[in-house]
Each structure stands twice: as structure tokens, then as C-alpha cells.
């Protein structure tokens, strides 16, 4: 179809069936919330992670994206990627990892940047709420 031109099928798959759309209680102690915007276009992405205190891993992750198809696909893919990761692992994800998986064209790279910004922001928010967790992680336990 005409409007599909230029979108890779993986983008369309995530766009048509976005994974893990939803919202968590922002005030929960074990939830980190990232809310970021793309200056280039004004699109907005909210990403939330629930962290298991004992394992230090992301137990659950949800998103809401008000943006283009590539931004929605990027956040959907990101939620699949980070589930089960430690915060350190998730913090190392690069937008290029997302862009490569979804075959985003150069003009859509900032859409995947939104996903990288969102997970980093969610992790930072979690550490702000749980400063002791960070100390534990750094000491390698
Ligand atoms: Fe607004 Fe992407 S430019 S939807
Ligand atoms: Fe702006 Fe995709 S996030 S065009």
C-alpha cells in the first residue's frame, strides 16, 4: 500500500502489534519512569521499568509513545529487548541497535534515539528513587 512505502516489515509488525503497551504506577518504589521528547519532531515516549530488587533485573516493562510509526516500533522492540536485563545491560543499549534491527532509514534514526533516551531516563529515575541499589550494583554483588 502507498502509505507503507519505505517502512520495513519489522517496523510494520511492531507498529501494528505493539508489544507491552501500558502504564505503571509512577509512585511505586520499584518503578523507573522515563519520559522523553524528540526535539526534531515533538514526538513523545514514556517508558517504564519494574526492577526486581534481588536480581537487579528488569522484571516488567511498558511504554506509551505518541509519535510516528518508527518511534512506536522502536519502543515496542526496546521493551522486548530489555526485559530480563540488568540495569547495566539495558543502559548500554544504543539507538543503532534498535535502528539496525528495524532497518530504519537515516531520516528515522532520531526515532530510535527516542528509545535509547527513554530507557536511560527510566534507569536514571529508578536510581534516583533507589540510591542504595546503585551502591550494591557497583560493588558487584
Ligand atoms: Fe511527528 Fe514523527 S514527526 S510523528
Ligand atoms: Fe520523530 Fe519518528 S520520532 S519522526
TrEMBL record:
NIF system FeS cluster assembly NifU N-terminal domain location: 7-130
Any single GO BP term: iron-sulfur cluster assembly
Coiled-coil annotated residue ranges, if any: none
Cofactors required: [2Fe-2S] cluster
Domain of life: Eukaryota
Pathway(s) where this gene product acts: Cofactor biosynthesis; iron-sulfur cluster biosynthesis
GO molecular function: 2 iron, 2 sulfur cluster binding; iron ion binding
Keyword list, A-Z: 2Fe-2S, Iron, Iron-sulfur, Metal-binding, Mitochondrion, Transit peptide
Metal-binding listed as a keyword: yes
A single cellular component GO annotation: mitochondrial matrix
Localisation per UniProt entry: Mitochondrion matrix
Role of this protein: Scaffold protein for the de novo synthesis of iron-sulfur (Fe-S) clusters within mitochondria, which is required for maturation of both mitochondrial and cytoplasmic [2Fe-2S] and [4Fe-4S] proteins.
Family affiliation: Belongs to the NifU family.
Protein name (Swiss-Prot/TrEMBL): Iron-sulfur cluster assembly protein
Whole-protein coverage range: 42 to 182 of 200
Amino acid at each position: 500500500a502507498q502509505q507503507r512505502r519505505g517502512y520495513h516489515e519489522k517496523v510494520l509488525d511492531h507498529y501494528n502489534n505493539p508489544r507491552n503497551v501500558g502504564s505503571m504506577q509512577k509512585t511505586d518504589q520499584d518503578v523507573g519512569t522515563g519520559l522523553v521528547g524528540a526535539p526534531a519532531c515533538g514526538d513523545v515516549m514514556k517508558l517504564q521499568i519494574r526492577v526486581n530488587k534481588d536480581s537487579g533485573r528488569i522484571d516488567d516493562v511498558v511504554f506509551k509513545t505518541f509519535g510516528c510509526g518508527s518511534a512506536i516500533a522502536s519502543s515496542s522492540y526496546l521493551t522486548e529487548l530489555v526485559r530480563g536485563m540488568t540495569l547495566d545491560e539495558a543502559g548500554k543499549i544504543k539507538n543503532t541497535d534498535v535502528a539496525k534491527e528495524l532497518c530504519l532509514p537515516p531520516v528515522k534514526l532520531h526515532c530510535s534515539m527516542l528509545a535509547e533516551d527513554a530507557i536511560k531516563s527510566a534507569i536514571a529515575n529508578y536510581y534516583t528513587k533507589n540510591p542504595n541499589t546503585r551502591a550494591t550494583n557497583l560493588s558487584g554483588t
